[in-house]
Design goal:
Layout (H helix, E strand, L loop, with lengths): L6 E6 L5 E10 L2 E11 L3 H10 L4 E6 L14 H7 L5 E3 L5 H11 L3 E3 L5 H9 L2 E4 L4 E6 L5 H13 L11
Parallel strand pairs: 1-4, 3-6, 4-5
Antiparallel strand pairs: 1-2, 2-3, 7-8
Helix pairs in contact: 3-5, 4-5
């Protein structure tokens, strides 16, 4: 973690399922993966507090397209709620086929530097992410298997398709 660099987060949203959040810093051609958080059954207010409790200065938060979903109880979108809680600026990743996102992740992995101490679970999930196997046909299906790895891998996929590289900026805080 470099306190002089801003942090980008990439999210996979879940309530019944886990929400996974990667924390990354860009410097030159490097993608520094500095942190990972995951929780189940928590609302956006929990994650807003989690973000505030970290020492990071945020450049942007990359969210999946389902951030636009309106909640039945409030009529507000998750996007509106997140902004009201101080999670901003939000960039919504394009909704692309999963295979395109997996290809995007593979294309950036060589630029990534991982801080293993901070995100052991997230890193293990990226390693274990795999396709679903069809026992009847004895072949792999064209979609990933949905298990504990999915949320971490999906959040990283949203980063790969949603982040637009910028000139590295150092913040003075």
């Amino acid at each position: 973690y470099d306190p002089m660099l801003q942090v980008v987060t990439a999210w996979d949203l879940g309530v019944g399922d886990a929400t996974g959040i990667w924390f990354l810093q860009m410097y030159a051609k490097e993608i520094r993966v500095i942190d990972y958080e995951e929780a189940t059954g928590e609302g956006l207010s929990y994650y807003a507090k989690l973000l505030k409790d970290k020492p990071y200065v945020y450049e942007q938060h990359i969210m999946p397209h389902d951030i636009r979903v309106r909640e039945l109880g409030t009529g507000k979108s998750r996007y509106e709620t997140a902004q009201e809680l101080g999670i901003k600026p939000i960039h919504i990743a394009k909704s692309l086929p999963v295979d395109d996102g997996i290809h995007a992740v593979r294309s950036i992995l060589g630029k990534c530097w991982f801080d293993k101490k901070k995100y052991e679970r997230g890193f293990a999930a990226l390693q274990d992410y795999h396709k679903e196997y069809d026992d009847v046909r004895k072949e792999y299906k064209n979609k990933p298997f949905h298990d504990w790895c999915s949320h971490s891998a999906d959040a990283f996929r949203y980063f790969a398709i949603g982040y637009t590289p910028k000139t590295p900026q150092r913040s003075v805080t």
